[in-house]
UniProtKB/TrEMBL annotation:
UniProt: Mg(2+) 2 binding residues: D58, D87
Gene name per UniProt: thiL
Protein family: Belongs to the thiamine-monophosphate kinase family.
Miscellaneous remark of the record: Reaction mechanism of ThiL seems to utilize a direct, inline transfer of the gamma-phosphate of ATP to TMP rather than a phosphorylated enzyme intermediate.
Protein name: Thiamine-monophosphate kinase
Binding-site residues, substrate: H65, E291, W343
Pathway membership: Cofactor biosynthesis; thiamine diphosphate biosynthesis; thiamine diphosphate from thiamine phosphate: step 1/1
Residue sites binding Mg(2+) 5 per the record: D241
SUPFAM superfamilies (UniProt xref): PurM C-terminal domain-like (SSF56042), PurM N-terminal domain-like (SSF55326)
Keywords (A to Z) from UniProt: ATP-binding, Kinase, Magnesium, Metal-binding, Nucleotide-binding, Thiamine biosynthesis, Transferase
Length: 348
């Protein structure tokens, strides 16, 4: 997985910018009726008949957000799409289109960009979205990918960070901390590989956490499930920077406080065992690890019967008034203030 798989190397200059764009985008098909014109003109044309439009952008920079020594380009393309869709779903919206802009140095052959676009196409098919445009330019060294995602939501269904009320329940989808522990394993194997390139990494027993790092999913299914259950969250956010900092965003935007229960935080057994192996506290990992792309939301108490038996959801706390502050209630039943030690892109 660490070795360079690009045996064939076609110089990007051989195609020229327009040839490259045509080559990379020729397989994209239009799936959404709201896409009137996709790639190929000066601008895409979209037509939405009702509701509101949500727009979100994320940029991924080589050396800051990803390391190509263990991130296959196909996975990177997939992840670049998924992290943006996650923000659309966090508004309780449906994702419909994306644009993809890349800055790439001549270090990358055509075959590398084909891999990247294969991942983008896989994500676009799976999430049923159209790639309707982008931009292609050169960079001096690394690779930069910027994705803009567009979605739609009926005006009464949009969910903001600001709607939570005291006594609402705090709920999270899936489990937390796996992507961070997957990264720890990949970083460790990279160091081993540097010392002895013949030493092939043994990643058995880490498959779930590595997949969570390299191939995260956006929780489109949770948005559909909430709709089926007729539960509209009072507030929602996706977990990109770590549970702690996302809880603080919900509290601050909603002007409330909250108690988070340590013993309720959902952890996969592989996260627990890998934390033991690395001698890291699993709660710290769940609170601050990030890149989980799970949905964190609040619901009013009357919605509890609709979500309580569902294995996709875990109630991890409840909201209080602003004066109560934001606390973690530990297993030892002590109350400690929540801190946002989340991974901060600007400090990296
Ligand atoms: P312009 O010069 O008018 O900006 P471009 O030649 O950059 O047009 O782009 C031509 C078409 O290809 C446009 O529809 C644009 O959105 C699309 N496009 C350019 N780069 C990419 C890319 N990396 N991925 C997807 N679509 C792209
Ligand atoms: Mg352009």
């Amino acid at each position: 997985m660490i070795e360079d798989k690009n045996q064939n190397k076609t110089d990007l200059a051989a195609l020229g910018e327009f040839g490259l764009i045509d080559h990379l985008t020729k397989n994209f098909t239009i799936k959404q009726t709201s896409t009137i014109k996709g790639i190929g003109d000066d601008a895409a044309v979209l037509e939405f008949n009702k509701g509101q439009i949500v727009v979100t952008t994320d940029m991924l920079v080589e050396g800051v957000h990803f390391d190509l020594s263990y991130m296959p380009l196909k996975h990177l393309g997939y992840k670049a799409i998924v992290v943006n869709l996650s923000d659309v779903y966090a508004m309780n919206a449906q994702a419909t289109q994306v644009t993809v802009s890349i800055a790439v140095s001549n270090r990358f052959p055509l075959e590398a960009l084909e891999e990247l676009y294969a991942g983008i196409e896989t994500a676009a098919s799976l999430y049923n979205i159209d790639v309707v445009g982008g931009d292609t330019t050169s960079s001096t060294t690394g690779l930069i990918i910027s994705v803009t995602a567009i979605g739609t939501v009926d005006s009464e269904n949009a969910v903001y960070r600001s709607g939570a009320k005291p006594n609402d329940l705090l709920v999270v989808s899936g489990d937390l901390g796996a992507a961070y522990m997957g990264l720890q394993v990949l970083e460790r194997e990279k160091e081993v590989f540097k010392v002895n390139p013949n030493n092939q990494p043994d990643l058995d027993g880490y498959t779930y956490i590595i997949e969570r790092q390299l191939k995260p999913e956006a929780r489109k299914d949770i948005i559909e499930l909430l709709k089926d259950l007729e539960v509209k969250p009072t507030s929602m956010i996706d977990i990109s920077d770590g549970l702690s900092s996302e809880i603080m965003h919900l509290c601050k935007h909603s002007n409330i406080g909250c108690d988070l229960y340590e013993d309720k935080i959902p952890l996969d057994p592989q996260v627990i065992s890998t934390c033991e192996e690395f001698n890291i506290d699993s709660t710290t990992v769940a609170l601050n690890g990030g890149e989980d792309y799970e949905l964190l939301f609040t619901v009013s108490q009357e919605d509890f019967p609709n979500i309580k038996a569902n294995p996709n959801f875990t109630v991890i706390g409840f909201m209080k008034d602003e004066a109560s502050g934001m606390h973690l209630i530990t297993r030892a039943e002590t109350s400690i203030p929540l801190k946002a030690q989340g991974w901060n892109a600007l400090n990296n």
